[in-house]
Amino acid sequence: MKNILVIGATGQIGSELTMELRKRYGNTNVVAGYIQGAEPKGELKDSGPSEIVDVTNEAMIESVVKAYHIDTIYNLAALLSVVAESKPKLAWKIGIDGLWNVLEVARVHGCAVFTPSSIGSFGADTPHTLTPQDTIQRPRTMYGVTKVTTEMLSDYYHTKYGVDTRAVRFPGIISNVTPPGGGTTDYAVDIYYSAVKGEKFVCPIAEGTLMDMMYMPDALNAAISLMEADPTKLVHRNAFNIASMSFAPEMIYAAIKKEVPDFEMVYDVDPLKQSIANSWPDSLDDTCARNEWGWKPVYDLESMTKDMLEKLRAKL
Ligand SMILES: NC(=O)c1ccc[n+]([C@@H]2O[C@H](COP(=O)([O-])OP(=O)(O)OC[C@H]3O[C@@H](n4cnc5c(N)ncnc54)[C@H](O)[C@@H]3O)[C@@H](O)[C@H]2O)c1
Q: In the prediction, which pLDDT does 303 show?
């Protein structure tokens, strides 16, 4: 990786991934791709180049790839799970037609491509505990449908055209820089903001609902280490299970309450979010990622909670 384009660079993951890549590969070598209405601001804007890159416009992607001699594309453009249910056609257009454009440009210009999948790529028929790397993927949400297709189309471009496509299945990502964009696991970010603001938290997910989660620094490390991994060691490509922690609302609440003793949480379950959450795994088996490219997370619920509270106290 020398010259990198991040598409969707102002989103929850993109805003931090772009800065981490700039730290590691040099500010001028990482282009922040954004769309109108989601312009980069502050440090993200000032620290390096940025360009309008709409993933639904192949010529636009190609002109930026050519101008900056891009060799690696992180394609983060997507509508997240809850938003995609209200705009399924647009979710497909961005997630799949957009991906096709990225892959075509990558094929012609020899770029490697990272397009994340998700725990949402599984469905109710998937084994829910220690979900294997290779298993049933029959999701019933549009988000899940686009994620399974992402995995298959990315693998297709690798086997048919030799495009270097690699990805992980992200769990719910918890972070403190850019708020999440409308997913099922957003509650696990929102709960920290409530705790720091001294507000009672109203949890939209029912007690006992286990989901895989990950702290942003581990997610960034996964995305970068996989793209740096020795390709001869990769048996899988799109996309690797990665895991670091799995918890239900009462467990994250207890972890926060240890640090903020008067914090209160009540439940008001959102039926759409709950039905999506019920169809997702409780925990993933990430053995293949560990064996094929040395994946190893750093944070657990306790250490993430301490760090999140410290960062948010400073920020708010
Ligand atoms: N955040 C999570 O918990 C999580 C979990 C699993 C997988 N993922 C995946 O990671 C990727 C990034 O997620 P995120 O949480 O940063 O999402 P986000 O919603 O915060 O960011 C998505 C970005 O895509 C941009 N975008 C929208 N339409 C576009 C278009 N037509 N062209 C170019 N860009 C466009 C948006 O402006 C935004 O910056 C997505 O593929 C998502 O499915 C995220």
A: 98
Q: Is the pTM of this model over 0.85?
A: yes
Which atom of ligand 1 lies closest to the CA of 9?
Answer: 39
Question: What is the DSSP track for 15-73?
Answer: HHHHHHHHHHH-GGGEEEEE-TTS---HHHHHTS-EEE--TT-HHHHHHHHHHTT--EE
**Is the per-residue pLDDT at 114 higher than 90?**
yes
Residue in the structure block whose two tokens are 């390096």: 48
The per-residue pLDDT for range 224-280, each reduced to its tens digit, is 999 999 999 999 999 999 999 999 999 999 999 999 999 999 999 999 999 999 999
Which atom of ligand 1 is nearest to 179's Cα?
Answer: 20
pLDDT digits (tens, 9 = 90+) for 284-293: 999 999 999 9
Task: Select from 80, 85, 118 the residue to mutate for testing ligand 1; criterion: most ligand atoms less than 8 Å from CB.
Answer: 80
Rounded to 10 degrees, the C-alpha dihedral 12/13/14/17 comes to 140
Q: In what order do the strands lie in the sheet with 168-170?
A: 117-118, 168-170, 240-241
Query: Does ligand 1 have an atom closer than 6 angstroms to the CB of 181?
Result: yes
Q: Angle 249-259/301-315 helices, nearest 10 degrees?
A: 60
Find out whether 235 and 166 touch, Cβ atoms under 8 Å: no
**Is 168's C-beta closer than 6 angstroms to any atom of ligand 1?**
no
Quote the tokens at residue 114: 């990272």
List, by residue number, the catalytic residues: 143
Tell me if 249 CB under 6 Å of ligand 1: no
CA 263 – CA 273 distance, rounded (Å)? 23
Ligand 1 near 95 CB (within 6 A): no
d(CA 75, CA 310): 31
How many whole angstroms separate alpha carbon 75 and alpha carbon 8? 7
Give the C-alpha separation, 133 to 287, whole Å: 8
